[in-house]
Amino acid sequence: MDVHRLFRRGETWAICREALGAKGSITTKELVDELMKARKLPTGDRILNRALGMKLVNALGKQELRGKLVREGKRKGVAVRRLPAEKKLV
Q1: Which one of 9, 48, 50, 73 has the largest count of C-beta atoms within 10 Å of its C-beta?
Q2: 87 pLDDT more than 60
Q3: What CA dihedral angle connects 78, 68, 17 and 33, to 10 degrees?
Q4: Residue 50 domain-assigned?
Q5: Contact at 8 Å (CB) between 15 and 34?
Q6: Residue 1: pLDDT over 80
Q7: 3 lies in a domain?
């Protein structure tokens, strides 16, 4: 399924950043659910869920390389991510 045009440029990261800020550490599956809720897509659609998950894994990997996201490990085989800790100037 082609999900390329469902979101505007940068919209997936904006939704994920908001969810991560509100909930802390979240799995990739939970982030996909947040994306589907934000766009009012049917959350029971397994094919759409998987397609969005593959798109999101790529987008989150790029954010990790930029230092805007930290991978904490895995929970039940699914990557757990969080926002990096804020650096305080002393």
Answers
A1: 48
A2: no
A3: -20
A4: yes
A5: yes
A6: no
A7: no
Contact at 8 Å (CB) between 82 and 89? no
Q: Is 83:70 a contact under the CB 8 Å cutoff?
A: yes
Domain range for 48: 11-82
pTM of the complete model: 0.82
Let me know if residue 4 belongs to a domain. Answer: no
Question: Which CATH number covers residue 37?
Answer: 1.10.10
Opening angle at CA 38, ends 22 and 41, nearest 5: 145
Residue pointed to by tokens 């947040």 = 34
What average pLDDT is seen over the chain? 87
* Beta-strand runs (E) in 1-90: 26-27, 70-75, 78-82
Q: Which residue has the higher pLDDT, 18 or 85?
A: 18
Query: How many independent structural domains does the chain possess?
Result: 1
Q: Looking at the domain assignment, is residue 5 inside a domain?
A: no
The pairing of beta strand 78-82 with beta strand 26-27: antiparallel
